[in-house]
Specification:
This protein has twelve helices and eight strands. The protein has helices at residues 3-14, 16-29, 36-48, 53-67, 74-90, 117-130, 145-158, 171-185, 202-215, 237-246, 267-275, 296-304, and strands at 105-110, 135-138, 161-163, 189-192, 225-231, 253-257, 279-283, 291-293.
């Protein structure tokens, strides 16, 4: 099995709850002939799938445009939706590119507690090391001793150097030290973990802003990437998280985790439509290889069950 077909199989399995829920909603909405009532029900089914009201209207309209007042099956609706969703998602399909002229390339990783942020950083470290990059991890979630220990374990597992201090240490100072260490050792990438208390806490946002200010003393162009990790199970709440974090840091991309544990995978489509931020990776399981580069067409097919 090729890497691509293996990934699609895992993605399809991971999105089975989302595809099942959407399929059930579509089956209830689609009658033999596509009339105004069916289009309205189709729109409602897509909204229930967390795709968002505006985009649901557009997608239902796209189905109606070619098949209005004609016979149509649920599978045909799914096929049309897969093509339309691919168009939306292609705009945000963008790998995380490491600019070798920035050495080290500094990546700030943010997200609320519970998104799998620290685990995602560990998996990302492995991904980059597999690509022959030398990586330094900064254990900047200094509010949680468990997060520091977790990152140290990932460092041991992947061979990445870890810069860590005791819980309660100044996160901005630690990030500064990690960049200096990376420069001294000739590392290519620094991945900075950050605290993730509730997104409506002004203190957390102030801390993130401080980290950005401090690392810019070493490199005015830093962070070179600022990635928000989102948990798919939170559904529409992910939208408010993006809104809040993009006001605190120069947000450049998204990673969505836990797509295998929810029927709310459509939220990724809503985020793509609303913000247009690059989606670098999706997480479809616990395994280290279940963090995969985002593929728009594969995601659309898996979500629609086609």
């Amino acid at each position: 099995m090729s890497d691509r077909s293996g990934f699609f199989a895992r993605l399809k399995q991971g999105l089975s709850k989302s595809a099942g829920a959407l399929g059930d909603n579509l089956s209830g909405a689609v009658k033999a002939r596509l009339d105004a009532e069916t289009v309205a029900h189709l729109e409602e089914a897509l909204i229930k799938g967390d795709i968002g009201a505006n985009l649901a209207k557009q997608l239902a309209g796209a189905v109606a445009e070619t098949r209005y007042d004609r016979e149509i099956s649920t599978y045909e609706v799914r096929e049309i939706l897969a093509k339309e969703l691919t168009k939306v998602l292609k705009k945000v399909e963008k790998p995380l590119a490491i600019d070798k002229s920035k050495k080290p390339f500094i990546v700030l990783v943010a997200g609320v507690n519970g998104t799998g942020k620290t685990t995602t950083i560990g998996k990302l470290a492995k991904h980059l090391i597999d690509q022959k990059h030398k990586v330094v991890l900064a254990a900047g979630d200094t509010f949680r001793a468990a997060a520091i220990e977790q990152l140290q374990a990932w460092g041991a597992r992947t061979g990445a150097e870890v810069v860590a201090k005791a819980a309660g240490a100044d996160a901005a100072g630690l990030a500064f030290e990690a960049i200096e260490r990376a420069r001294a050792s000739g590392a290519d990438v620094v991945l900075i973990d950050t605290a993730g208390r509730l997104q409506n806490k002004a203190g957390l946002m102030a801390e993130l802003e401080k980290i950005v200010r401090v690392i810019r003393k070493l490199d005015a162009s830093a962070p070179h990437a600022a990635i928000l990790v989102l948990d798919a199970t939170t559904g529409q709440n992910a939208i408010s998280q993006v809104d809040v974090f993009k006001n605190a840091i120069p947000l450049s991309g998204l990673i969505m985790t836990k797509l295998d544990g929810t029927a709310r995978g459509g939220i990724l489509v809503a985020l793509a439509d609303r913000f247009g931020l690059p989606v670098h990776f999706v997480g479809v399981g616990e395994g280290v290889d279940d963090l995969q580069a985002f593929d728009a067409a594969a995601f659309a097919k898996a979500l629609t069950g086609t």
